[in-house]
Write a structure and sequence with these properties.
The complex is a heterodimer of chains A (about 300) and B (about 190).
Chain A (H helix, E strand, L loop, with lengths): L1 E4 L10 H13 L3 E4 L11 H4 L1 H17 L4 E4 L2 H16 L1 H11 L8 E4 H9 L1 H7 L8 E4 L9 H4 L9 H8 L3 E2 L18 H17 L4 E4 L2 H9 L1 H8 L7 E3 H8 L4 H4 L9 H7 L4 H5 L1
Helix pairs in contact in A: 1-13, 3-4, 4-5, 6-7, 6-9, 10-12
Chain B lengths: L10 H13 L12 H4 L11 H9 L3 H5 L3 H4 L5 H5 L6 H14 L6 H17 L4 H12 L6 H9 L13 H13 L5
Helix pairs in contact in B: 8-9, 8-11
The chains are: A alpha/beta (about 300), B mainly alpha (about 190).
Chain lengths: ~300, ~190
Amino acid sequence: MRYAYYPGCSLDATGIEYDTANKLVAKKLGMDLVEIPDWNCCGATSAHSTNHLLALALPARNLAIAEAEGFETVAIPCAACFARCKKTAAAVQASPEMKGKIRDIIEMDYQAKAEILSFLDVVGKKVGLEKIKEQVIQPLRGLKVAAYYGCLLVRPAAIMQSDDPENPMVMDHIIEGLGATALDWDYKTECCGASHVVPVPNLGKNLIHDILRNAASHGAEAIATACPLCMLNLDMRQKQINALLGTNFHIPIFHFTELMALAFGYSGQDFGLAKHFEPAEELIARTVNPGVRSAGA
Amino acid sequence: MEKVDLSNIGNEVHADITQLAKNAGVELSSCYQCGKCSAGCPVGFIMDESPRRVIRLLQLGLLDDALRTRAIWLCATCDTCSTRCPKGVAVAALMESLRQEAKRRGITTEKNINLFNDIFLNNVRLFGRSPEVILSALYNLRSGNFFQDMDAAAHLFKSGKAHFMPGRIKNTQAVRRIFNKCLEKEGQH
């Protein structure tokens, strides 16, 4: 199936390996990802802190381009971008007046008809578990993973329409489908502080610390994320938190599609595992054992 | 807390509050102050007033006090509050409206968050996208936190996660026109 793909700004920079892994996984799953032409930043989170119309209009331009190109589904790998696009579509659907205003501002027609899904939901629900399992040639056998959803993928519940705002399971099912173990833990939907971590460092470090601690106490060998900002906070800032709080966390963090790519037979080099701050190579070498399936079966 | 005389609050303040709540899709009288929003708030530990108390300030007509809280800036819009509210009050959306109004009135209680937002949006206006390197560099420079996250910079550049040149879109003019029109229409949501 053909999907309009809105990577968002992070996937060109700090989340670059997420973008690469998404494309590898999409190829294996027969998804046709087409980047929205000349997309702009959705403004998250600064636009909705500053100006209501701007927060709606910036995502609307991208969604209007996708509609004009005839796409029925937009796939968004960043939770913040996803949330802003969903909120824009909901605001336009709810009010003909707002629809008119947005059309005037972006100088394009926008009907809010295209379905907007997170990349996680596209893979987990549209493509589905069966197709994922078919592609697994290097099962991540024994790897204990805490699936971390964060906040914006699942809340507010009425707009995001995830499977459950308090205990989502889509990523857990994917992880299990890859042959790994998805852990039951408490912080799967807690907020990581997102971009607040920059202007209010103490705030972010407390939130990130709590997430890492809870994952570790449940035996997590790795954490899977579905948002480039969650990934950056948990991965890049782990060392800073250890230094600041005297902890000793060394938990490899993955975008969920990186785990999929590994199970589908790619190597870490194919998507840029070495770009992670917390080294993951050793864990992967221990877990991903090519030929395990044929030998075991 | 000092004594507050609620009898002096003018009608225009109540009208402003009603409008702000309406923009956020919130009926303020729905909130019966159970505090569930604040109990689950991950940022609550660092707020000066809990979300519940911010709503209470508005119910009492104390708009200026609400706009001067740090809480409305510290809210991370994670929507735990809105999702758990037994009365369906969109608490995070209300905090967002208050933050926008405070900014419009020049009340920026959390200077660094405001600065971060200004730099972020200015980049989007210029390039159409948000270049993370320029955002971090300008933020460090202008906030005076010169070395913040510098420990990570070497790895970011070495691994190709950061570029010196910002990615930009072709039609930057379209994005600039969006900014101009939205700022023109400010206040008339």
